[in-house]
Design a protein that fits this description.
This protein is of the alpha+beta class. The strands form two sheets. Strands 1, 2, 3, 4, 5, 8, 9, 10 and 11 form a nine-stranded mixed β-sheet that branches. It has a two-stranded antiparallel ribbon with strand order 6-7. The radius of gyration is 20 Å and the shape is globular.
């Protein structure tokens, strides 16, 4: 038996990057199911259970903003690190002046969501659903987490609290029907370790997005 939970999350900034854009970061209109699952796992993760996002409730109006930042254009090569470990004298550094790139990011501002989710058992320990649910709610109420939850990018921290009772009403600007287009659902890993992105058609009704199961016909590669 699976028990459902509701978690309210909010933050000043968020960026749920669209994979079709390469150099510039462009956010989806709302949080993706994979990002919502990451928030739940940051608070409570166990190998015995798997989180499943059922519904996303958007409470704040969708507002975009643009920022431009300086970033480095590449990572430190692994070969340089290995060489330095062997001889102890080779430099391990990136010269920022030579690698600096200016990139724009289209992000969200002042976001607030309610994530409705449940977990499924992976082994015998996961079948004790009541225990795992109580542990999650207790950790969420105390603000405990395994690592700092974030809204798409690590530089955008998320505030959170468990939601008890009826969910808040969305902003009036969210009322009505809205087609948000194809959205990333999650990544599926094959036996060879390769990952494949799965997408679904996100439709929002009065601020509510119903997330189909990952293996349903509504989800496509």
């Amino acid at each position: 038996m699976s028990y459902g939970v509701s978690l309210k999350v909010w933050g000043e900034y968020a960026c749920f990057t669209r994979p079709e854009f390469k150099s510039e970061r462009v956010s989806y209109d709302v949080i993706t199911p994979s990002a919502a699952r990451g928030l739940l796992e940051a608070i409570y993760w166990k190998p015995a259970i798997a989180w499943v996002v059922d519904r996303i409730r958007v409470l704040s109006p969708i507002r975009f903003d643009t920022v431009r930042r300086n970033e480095v254009g590449h990572k430190l090569p692994l070969g340089n690190v290995t060489k330095a470990m062997r001889d102890g004298v080779s430099p391990v550094e990136i010269v920022v002046e030579d690698a600096r790139q200016q990139r724009a990011t289209l992000l969200l501002r002042d976001v607030c969501y309610v994530i409705d989710a449940h977990f499924e058992a992976r082994d015998a320990d996961g079948r004790n659903s009541a225990k795992h649910r109580e542990m999650f709610l207790r950790r969420a109420a105390k603000g405990q987490c395994f690592h700092g939850p974030y809204l798409g990018c690590r530089e955008f921290p998320a505030c959170f609290e468990p939601l008890d009772g009826a969910p808040p009403q969305p902003d009036d600007a969210l009322l009505g029907q809205r087609d948000l287009g194809w959205m990333l659902h999650d990544l599926v890993y094959g036996q060879d370790g390769e990952r494949e992105a799965r997408f679904f058609r996100a439709r929002m009704s009065d601020g509510v997005i119903d997330v189909p199961p990952l293996e349903s016909v509504e989800v496509r590669a």
